[in-house]
Design goal:
The complex is a heterodimer of chains A (209) and B (291). Helix content of chain A is 22%, strand content 29%. By secondary structure, chain A is an alpha+beta fold. Chain A has two domains: 78 residues, 2-Layer Sandwich (Gyrase A, domain 2); 125 residues, Cyclophilin. In chain A, strands 1-2-4-3 form a four-stranded antiparallel beta sheet, covered by helices on one side. In chain A, strands 5-13-6-7 form a four-stranded mixed beta sheet. In chain A, a hairpin with a 4-residue loop joins β1 and β2. In chain A, α1 packs across α2. Chain B folds into two domains: 152 residues, Jelly Rolls, CATH 2.60.120; 109 residues, Cyclophilin-like (Cyclophilin), CATH 2.40.100. Chain B is elongated and about 70 Å long. The chains are: A alpha+beta (209), B mainly beta (291). Chains A and B meet through β3 and β4 of A and β15 and β19 of B.
């Protein structure tokens, strides 16, 4: 299902129906940004476009055109931002939850690490905290539930998994994801431009240190 | 420099927020009642987007180390200036530019109505910007810390600013607490009568409201479908409905994405009304188009 819905007077929510389409539409909007667009927020099945003071009728027509372009691209191909090199994230796999994940997955710890580092993941979208990226494409054997009781503080750089996703904690925060290890790579820095190493569509590869 | 002698119940530095980073998980933040901050800035000849101070329930005491032109808008507070030396305290008004001498202290009482009061100072509050904004983001912690006793805030230069040309802004009276909404984007997640239910009778503003959102108590809104909405982008003013069926109106520090369906979005002109709602206030929704 796809279409464009009003999100108030200043926003339009484009239904893409699938994450790769969201990423392609996001890339098209970055390359050919309509005038007045302030924020473009991709989600798993949508892209929110915020444009205060812009004629919504005109913008809606433009977004419908771009959406059909995004839908015409091959559904299974790589995301539109795939031309960029993947980000390599070096990891020390010594996380507190490595054992519990191995148990839940019914795999040796060694195999958990191999499967986490063995695939290229793609940033689906960001949320929860600035720079917190939901990485998609995790090996299904590693789809484990969140902790029943979240930790009150997880250090920045923690590499974790929960449900279908993996993530790197950009800053210290409370968190209920299971910790596999840590990276010295600084993925979030407010002094940098852009502040986040990850953006929707970025390809990510974890590498054992 | 302005020294915070008392911040009142909750006070932060705010400008018009950090935009263009929502896709990286960064809330927009900024003044909850933008219209009031912009007005205060205009009164002292600042650009509208200059940073000022947002008070919650008034109550602050601010000492000025150098003299400055200031203006106070939003929820109207009794204001007094206590000058050094044997000078009686002077009463000053809301919505007018006035001079605070070096060494004087500006005192805010409790607002007669509304929740958030704005102080603009000519030259603007000049704390270090983070991602292009000086706003305190209460959700993510970006920007300066909320004001604490003893904090010292730098004031920017007034050089190059327009002359102060306004004597008085007409006082804003408490507006009817009616929030007009644009239905959707997820009104179809609710039973067909849910929009009518939302608008049928007033909701009460809950104690746990803050800069993230105004939490409401009243008629429960029933969903037409089960299951989870995939996380999607959220706008300021979104009326999000969690499983409790009790709506939340998103304000400036709302999360940029969310997973509960949004039944409607408050019209931009009514966001200042939402930002001035106090816990215990009653508020009504309307889906009628603006006149």
């Amino acid at each position: 299902m796809s279409g464009v819905r009003a999100a108030g007077e200043h926003g339009l929510l484009v239904e893409t129906g699938a994450l790769p389409v969201s990423h392609r539409l996001d890339a098209l909007l970055r390359a050919r940004r309509p005038a007045g667009v302030v924020d473009v927020v991709p989600g798993p099945e949508t892209v929110l476009v915020v444009a205060p003071g812009v004629d919504q009728g005109v913008l809606r027509v433009r977004l419908e055109e771009l959406l059909s372009e995004a839908l015409r691209a091959p559904a299974e191909g790589p995301a539109a931002s795939a031309e960029a090199e993947p980000v390599t994230v070096p990891v020390t796999y010594d996380g507190e939850d490595l054992e519990s994940v191995a148990e839940l997955a019914g795999l040796p710890v060694e195999e958990v690490v191999a499967r986490h580092a063995g695939r290229e993941l793609v940033v689906g979208w960001l949320g929860f905290a600035p720079g917190f990226a939901y990485l998609t494409g995790l090996d299904p054997a590693l789809h484990v539930p969140r902790l029943a009781t979240p930790r009150t503080s997880v250090p920045a750089g923690s590499v974790a998994i929960a449900g279908q996703h993996s993530a790197v904690y950009p800053t210290a925060s409370p968190g209920g994801w299971r910790l596999l290890g840590r990276t010295p790579l600084r993925i979030w820095d407010v002094a940098a431009d852009p502040p986040s190493l990850f953006r929707p569509g970025t390809r990510v590869r974890f590498e054992r240190m | 420099m302005i020294e915070v002698r008392a911040p009142g119940p909750y006070a932060t530095v705010q400008d018009l927020g950090r935009h263009g980073y929502a896709h990286l998980g960064v809330p927009s933040s900024g003044a909850a009642d933008e219209a009031s901050l912009c007005l205060a800035n205009r009164l002292v000849g600042n650009p509208e987007a200059a940073a000022g101070i947002e008070l919650t329930y008034g109550g602050a005491r601010l000492a000025f180390r150098a003299g400055a032109w200031v203006a106070v808008t939003g929820a109207p507070c009794p204001l007094t200036v206590r000058s050094p030396g044997p000078v009686a305290d002077g009463r000053v008004g809301n919505g007018v530019p006035f001079w605070v001498a070096a060494g004087a202290e500006l005192r805010f009482g409790a607002p007669s109505w509304g929740l958030r009061t704005y102080l603009a100072v000519r030259g603007g509050i000049a704390v270090e910007p983070v991602l292009g904004s000086r706003s305190t983001d209460s959700l993510s912690g970006l920007g300066p810390a909320p004001l604490r006793q003893g904090a010292v805030l730098p004031v920017g230069t007034a050089g190059g600013l327009a002359e102060i040309s306004v004597d008085l802004a007409p006082p804003r009276s408490p507006r009817d607490a009616v929030l007009r909404i644009v239905p959707g984007p997820r009104d179809d997640w609710f039973v067909p009568e849910a929009l009518a239910e939302l608008c049928a009778e007033p909701y009460a503003v809950s104690q746990d409201s803050n800069r993230v959102g105004v939490r409401l108590r009243g008629r429960e809104l029933s969903r037409a479908r089960e299951g989870e909405l995939p996380s999607e982008g959220m706008v300021t003013g979104a009326v999000q409905v969690p499983p409790s069926g009790q709506p939340i109106v998103f304000l400036a520090d709302h999360p940029p994405t969310g997973g509960y369906p949004v039944i409607g979005v408050v019209r931009a002109a009514d966001l200042p009304v939402a930002a001035q709602l106090r816990p215990g206030d009653k508020v009504r929704f309307s889906v009628r188009a603006s006149r």
